[in-house]
Amino acid sequence: MSTETILILGGSFAGIGAAHYALRHTIPQLPKKQGVTYTVTLVNPSKDFYWRIAGPRAAVSKQLIPPSKYLYPIEPAFAYAKGTFNFVQGSAAHIDTAGHTVSVTTASGQQQSIHYAALIIATGVTTPSPLFTQTNNGSDLESTYNDFQKALSTAKHVVIGGGGPVGVETAGEIAEFLNGKPGFLSSGPKNPRGKVTLICADKKMLPILREAISKTAEKYLNRLGAEVLYNTKVVSATSTEEGKTLVQLADGKTIQADLYVDATGVRPNTSFLPKELLDNRNRVSCNPRTLRVEAAGPLVYVVGDVGSYTRGGVMDMADAIPVAMTNLKTDLVAHISGKPPGPDRYYTANLKEQQIAPIGTAKGVGAFGGWRVPSIMVWFLKGRDYMIGMMALPTVNGDSWKKEGKWKPEVGRAGLSSG
Q1: pLDDT for 264-280, tens place per residue?
Q2: Angle at CA 209, nearest 5°, toward 206 and 213?
Q3: Whether the predicted model's global pTM rises above the 0.90 cut
Q4: Which residues contact 231 (CB under 8 A, 6 or more apart)?
Q5: pLDDT reading at 191 higher than 90
Q6: Between the CA of residue 101 and those of 88, 96, 153, 336, what are the distances in Å?
Q7: Which of 58, 287, 346, 382 has a 20 to 30 A CA-CA distance from 152?
Q8: Which fold has domain 2-127+266-349?
Q9: Dihedral angle sign, alpha carbons of residues 49, 54, 57, 59
Q10: Which CATH architecture has domain 132-262?
């Protein structure tokens, strides 16, 4: 009896979703080939899944969101798949597409070579600030949060670089922590304990949302004691001998901060991949409809923020994971049976105005499907606990993927070329 491996690199939202989907829907539907079984191997730097959606609040207060609410052990979540699921704590170091192997550096520093029958790249992205990325064990992230919270307790001026949702949410959480909740009709705190400055390189915050929603976000931030600087870019942030941070702006001005949080963007985790598999943003280049990484050869796919097909975001994965995993099943069935492959399932990007951003524990802004949603709905959906109660456990244990979902095949196998 031989075992073939469906190898998944990355155990965040995309990787853990792909693993559950493969175990629940892909492997059970493969033709029974005598002497061959298929298993899923998930490789991730940490043994814990990090609910990074909650990062802006978890970083500020363990009373509001304790570690038990944003860290979840990965292996117990796959107890239902005993014998068909393997977990390797480590990071991909090199890929050999010709030999169908990935070299992994394990948590103990050893090198391990894993041969794959199929490969899903879901390595995600890394943020400039360690507050929003888990690179090692959960205990390291807890330690990072402890240090930040200790410094925040005495901070008089906090600067956040970046006008995207993470920057806006973090500014709101910090401002409320320092200055408290505003009065019902108050335009700002009467006796602010600390100053919070959000630096936005664009003319408005929250680039996916319309300007009117951005202006409402600014109003909510102002009420908490945070100001916004527009059309201003952070050039550098340097620690001083006094323990502060000197933030250098593109216009030549500087700001001295007690704390600086860099939320200016993300970096794809693709350093282990050859350049020919990447686009000009260092994301994994793929067929935008089938999510196949065609330059890597057959049976290689990409899901999540690391892929060239997406503008990012957790909500997008609900559309992408079923596409990649259905096409994986189609390709494996053809590989096993020797028959022509069946129809592809296609991904279509949802480019509607769709994003929600809590601002403190009581307010928020956003839109769904192009429709603006009121602050109370943002609070209900995300602002209460950053969707932990609603989505965390189903995401980790795979309940979100219990049903495969129906889809209608398109005629033919168009879209196989990404050119």
Answers
A1: 989 999 999 999 999 99
A2: 90
A3: yes
A4: 200, 201, 202, 203
A5: no
A6: 15, 5, 48, 19
A7: 382
A8: FAD/NAD(P)-binding domain (3.50.50)
A9: positive
A10: 3-Layer(bba) Sandwich (3.50)
